[in-house]
Amino acid sequence: MRPSALRIFLPAFTGALFLAAWYAIHAFLSEDTRFLLPTPGAILEAFRDHASALATASLNTTKGALLGFGLAIFVSLASATVLSLSPLLRLSLYPYLMILQMTPVIVIAPILVLWVGAGLPSVVAITFLICFFPLVVNTTQGLISTDRNLVELFRSYRATRAQQLLHLRLPAALPYFFTGLRIAATLAPIGALVGDYTAGSSAGDGGGLGFQALIYSSRAQYPALFATAVVTCILGFLFVAIVIALAHLALHHWHDSFDRPDR
Amino acid sequence: MLSLRVLLLAFLSATSVLFATDSSAPFKLTIQLDWVAEPEHGGFYQAQARGFFAAENLDVTLIPGGPNALVMPKVATGQAHIGQADSTNTLLQQAEGLPVVQFAAVFQDDPSGLLVNADSSVHRFEDLAGKTLIARPEWAFLPYLRKKYGIDFNIVPQNFSVAAFLGNKEAIQQGYYIAEPYHIVKAGGKKPRFLSTWDAGFRAYAVLVTSRKFAREHPDVLRAFTRAYIKGWRDYLEGDPAPAHAAMKAANSNNTDEFMMASRQLIIDGQLVTGRDADSGPANIGRLDPARYATQIEQLEALGILKKNKVTPATALTLDFLPTE
Amino acid sequence: MPPLVELQNVTKRFADGPLILDRLSLTVAEGEFISLIGPSGCGKSTLLRLLAGLTPLTSGSLSIAGRPPESAATDLSFVFQDPTLLPWLSATHNVELPLKLRGFPSPTRRALAERSLDLVRLRDRADAYPRQLSGGQKMRVSLARALALSPKLLLLDEPFGALDEITREHLNEELLAIRDAQAWTAFFVTHSVAEAVFLSTRIVVLSANPGRIQKIITVSFDYPRNADLRLTRAYHDLVTEVSRTLRIAEQEPAPSAP
Q1: Entry pTM
Q2: Looking at the domain assignment, is residue C156 inside a domain?
């Protein structure tokens, strides 16, 4: 079989085996324990039955994740720029940034609920916090790691500090920024889900996927819970995929990391 | 997702626990309470403190619950043998295929309802439209309210602390009228108003549930337990509750004598354990009425809250473990 | 004609460090091609940076077209050892960079950049990115960038040092061809005697620790020069003479200027 065909056939075959095993295990389970592992069929049925609830929840989680993510990008870019301009500020603030980064968001979540309110505000706040640190740390690193030769070049043109920032440091920091962005992209859906799970509400159009998971699990609607998990996976995957695509668009034509092996 | 992993692990450990029993030694029974130890659990604690369980050759462990009490998953997977729950919520879960069965009543009428601030604008159920309710998401009363009064409202999952309630005049929170109002007043708030589920035509029991597997395999244990439990309630309500209260205080340091006596009195005055219908009395303790279940199932199916034809009184509850008349 | 570049007793010392350059004096007329050659540590790169205004004098005076280096920025261009191209810009945009920083409008920038790339014969790679270019091509873009504003003074710091012999020779020839098309004065730092002889009007041999002028050798070959020059006897003799001076500079450095 040709390699390209193998690339499709092998995972498909494994997937089919996996599904068969799943049905087999389910059949093997006793009456008393069958509820622990819904069949793929039951999960599909749950998808149909709860389609609108899951769709609304996905939209809400995406909304929360995007808002928190976007806010984190904006604030981190501003913060990174400021931090890159002042070694004094960096020395003063970095230890606290590190401490805040270490603090598990789940612990801070209830406090955030008190401060900003349940529902979308907390979801955005938690997502923001979880995404902010990788972004600001990586981008700052990128801004201060500009190639010395290039900085000299700009000096030789008597470029102003603003020009240096805009035309040299920021573009040069783009790969670092995207590294941070990729990390933040994997975290944003998690942040939105955690925020939802601990602080979600059905206010407005309803909660997100975390809130749905809470409801389904409390009502013992396990096929729907599995369905929620599947949707969550897909959402997370899409989020990261889009960021990777963006990174590719921005960097592939010039960055070494995209060199093909034959070059 | 967390709870499902707990389920699988719990199931494995539970099966090994069951294999370890020996018929002559006291049977080790694990009971998962739905909340922290309070007078609503008077039957358990009095029976344990007065040795009624021991007399039936039962070694009972009472696990207090709390905001995250996973009663149903634990019982369904055998990690706990018996759990306390709301009968209607259980019906909904049984309709989803959860292999549990209801076998004895705790309260003939569940004292759940909505706590409303004395100064709040809400006076009737209809006034809840558009408001935010702090409640357990699985509470069957919520979709019932929506369907019955044609209103919609927001739900915020809650942890039953009174803090949010105290801070907000318009807060509406799920609670037990025999407990939360006392705590709110004690914490400095005005005595809240209470919208009772009964006033909306919703009648649930507070029940004890067990897994179908355990019911199949240990009917005698369940009978013995139920006998001791009923005796415990009777003794707690009619006799001296001091033994139970001492145990409850040990289990939960927030329990003051004043609170426990007040709560117990409310239970007595409300005839929650003995029943508020015509057949009220000590003989009614722990009894479940299939007719009431039939009515409620019909009611919920008609409102589209309960999946049709998934549960019947015959499958949802059993009277096999109650003492025969 | 007044000299373009005048150095008088130029001295450079870094902070509390050793003396790098010791009272250098030199006068350079317009159109000259001056090579700076010397052993490591003779301060030839530092001299270039002084001329570019990238580092200040410790003492002495240095003027370019009658002005100190700090204000002569618009008259000169620096070609670094490393091509120092911005990787995220195409060749054209790289060449346009100094123009952009100086506020030239887009059409003007484009026209000047294209003309510059023509000069280095790299017009067909105008849209290529640095990572798609060879070492020699990148250097040509760097040159094009330096020439875009038609500077009076071109400062080159071992620009071809990282390239192979053949590419280097070709670039030398191209550099001279460009010099015919544009009239600039050059200061060229190199380690290669052959290169210095091929390109220059005068070769300044420096001695090290501290940097002093050992000897200034005039190269009297006519322009335009081409590859055939390298095959002549006169060329080889001059290379030998410069090499010898270089050896002496290493072993018996010249005493301080009076």
Answers
A1: 0.76
A2: yes
Q: Is A250 exposed, middle or buried (0-12, 13-18, 19+ CB in 10 A)?
A: middle
- Mean per-residue pLDDT, C194-214: 91
Cis peptide before C224 (omega within 30 of 0): yes
Domain of C230: which CATH number? 3.40.50.300
What domains appear along chain B, each with residue ranges and CATH number?
2-110+204-316 (3.40.190.10), 112-200 (3.40.190.10)
Alpha carbon distances (Å) from B171 to A199, B122, B133: 16, 10, 7
* CATH number of this structure's domain A40-251, picked from the four choices 3.40.718.10, 3.40.50.150, 1.10.3720.10, 3.90.550.10: 1.10.3720.10
Pick from A150, A159, A256: which is nearest to C101 by CB?
Answer: A159
Give the C-alpha separation, B162 to B160, whole Å.
Answer: 6
Tell me the average pLDDT across C212-231: 90
ipTM value for the complex: 0.87
C58 found inside a domain: yes
- β-partners of residue B172 are B116, B133
Mean pLDDT confidence for C108-124:
91
Distance CA B196, CA C212 (A): 101
All structural domains of chain A with their residue ranges: 40-251
CA-derived radius of gyration, chain A: 23
Query: For chain C, which residues lie within 8 Å of any Cβ of chain A, measuring from their own Cβ?
Result: 52, 54, 73, 78, 80, 82, 84, 86-89, 97-98, 100-102, 129-131
List the domain range (segments joined by +) for residue C175: 5-84+152-251
Q: What pLDDT is recorded for position B17?
A: 61
Task: Report percent pLDDT > 70 for chain C.
Answer: 98
pLDDT-based confidence at B187, cuts 50/70/90? confident
B77 at A interface, C-beta within 8 A: yes
- Provide the pLDDT for residue A34: 82
Q: What is the mean pLDDT of chain B?
A: 87
Judged by average pLDDT, the poorest of A152-156, B135-139, B286-290, C112-116 is B135-139
- Domain count for chain C, please give it: 1
By Cβ distance, the residue of A32, A211, A220 closest to B212 is A32
- Predicted confidence at residue B20, as pLDDT, reads 55
